[in-house]
Amino acid sequence: MLTTPLRELSGQALWRYVSGAFYTVGGESDFRYLLPRILEVSIDDPGNANDPEIVLGKLRLANWDRWPIHERQAIEWFVDAWFELALSQDLAEADDDWVGESAESVLCGAARADLPLSHWLLRLLDPVAAPVLENLKERFPGQLSTFWEDAPTGFRELSAVLAEKQA
Fold first, then answer.
1. What is the 3-state secondary structure (H, E, C) of the chain?
2. Are 102 and 53 in contact, with CB atoms under 8 Å apart?
3. How far apart are CA 35 and CA 129, in angstroms?
4. Per residue in 70-115, pLDDT tens?
């Protein structure tokens, strides 16, 4: 993978890498090199990308909390834009029977990266986001992403909002 120009790496090649990153293949420097393309494919070709929970969960393994502040901020801004995109997709797909789960996937991934969820959770309280919030409430707690198990702090943040809205 390191011999192929970054912009030419396919989603499938990156999918295989991300799936094993830090467990069976690669280290922090490889991940940091590939991350811009991994994130690009995650947005542009989600059908050939890993789920946001997996992609963003790798940040913790990459020790991203020790990266330079400008790199961490860039990732936080990216995740913010990714959440807004996912939320808008969920809302566009919402009908009486089904609401997408993309926003939850990004939230869970952000939680797995140890990002505080407060501003995204506030976004869910906006009346425009009501269908997504209702969907989360209906699926809470047993039908949410199983990746929340790896993000207990984020899950507590989410639970507080969902419990408050149910009361």
1. CCCCCHHHCCHHHHHHHHHHECCCECCHHHHHHHHHHHHHHHHHCHHHCCCHHHHHHHHHHCCHHHCCHHHHHHHHHHHHHHHHHHHHHHHHHCCCCCCCCHHHHHHHHHHHCCCCCHHHHHHHCCHHHHHHHHHHHHHCCCCCCHHHHHCHHHHHHHHHHHHHHHC
2. no
3. 29
4. 999 999 999 999 999 999 999 998 876 678 899 999 999 999 999 9
Rounded-to-integer distance, Cα 28 and Cα 140, Å: 34
Give 116-127 pLDDT, tens digit per residue: 999 999 999 999
Q: Cα(166)–Cα(92) distance, rounded to whole angstroms?
A: 24
Residue type, 85: L
119-166 pLDDT tens trace: 999 999 999 999 999 999 999 989 999 999 999 999 999 999 998 745
Task: Match 């834009």 to its residue by tokens.
Answer: 81
Cβ atoms of residues 101 and 131 within 8 Å: no
| The overall pTM is greater than 0.90 | yes
CA atoms within 13 A on the CB side of 80: 11
